Amino acid sequence: MERVALVVWAAAIIVLLPAAASAHEVRPAYLSVQEEAPNEFGVLFKTPMQGDARLALSALFSGRIETVTPIVSHPTGDAMVQTWRMRTLEPLAGQNVLIDGLQNTMTDALVHVVFANGNSWTARLTPSEPSAVIPASQSAWAVFATYVRHGIEHIAFGFDHLLFVSGLMLIVRDWRKLVKAITAFTAAHSITLSCATLGWVTLPSRPVETMIAISIVMVAAEVVRMERGQLSLAIARPWMVAFAFGLLHGFGFAGALVELGLPQGDIPLALLAFNVGVELGQLAFIVVLLSAVYAVRQVIAIPRQAIVASAYAIGIIAAFWSVQRLDAVFS
């Protein structure tokens, strides 16, 4: 594999810059319902913010519900968190839960219900299917499938992670080194994803997101250095750099997973499923990118300058993210 693997992607980057710059603003809503006493539930409803206003979403149940405490709201930066207690006058299992207003958005909602007997249910609601029936329990396979989908979606819209992989592909010269570098990146972010999600190691999300953007700038700079004939650790041993920055990116993945919420009875399974989804999405991106470049090379010869142009495109976008996220950290 040659280093021209990013030419098609560079063009896409320029076209998709506005969407990429705001990609992390499209976050899912999250509804957590936990039975704390017979027929009494603690409710947490987190909805994404657009500027200073939250999305107009509300959680509705088909059965008779009595609100026990007032709804308490507080913002968390990019989301509004509302908490209250409710009493069900009919069994919650078997009721239909609806995220009203979801059909008018472009985001999803994760619903997590835990009963006092230990049974739990997790479902992903979408604008096309904003409601679902709450069962008494949920199979392990359903939990696994739900979090695999979330992992795939996170990497598909995680433009910063994809840009890092893209920059790595510009540095790597053949497919063997690419496999080694991607494997190192995968192993590293799997380690920190697991540790951070389980609460063993924690880092504040905004500085982590800023450092992820800076890591992309650094990789893009290494591509330019390589094209000038210079040598560095990233150029000679790309798998080492991939592993080091992979540890950082794992904290970013963990932040997304924590925001989604985890089913308390199936945390290891949900963690595994989310990681599998991330890897499937990452591999799909690499396959599509290489296939597109191969198709282009059958028609035209790709000039060497395209590699440098691709690196500059990646670096400019990452630098923009860095400034934007630094401003958020200190504001």
From TrEMBL:
Keywords: Membrane, Transmembrane, Transmembrane helix. The chain crosses the membrane at residues 154-172, 184-202, 208-226, 238-258, 270-294, 306-323. It comes from the Bacteria. The keyword Lipoprotein does not apply. This is HupE/UreJ family protein.
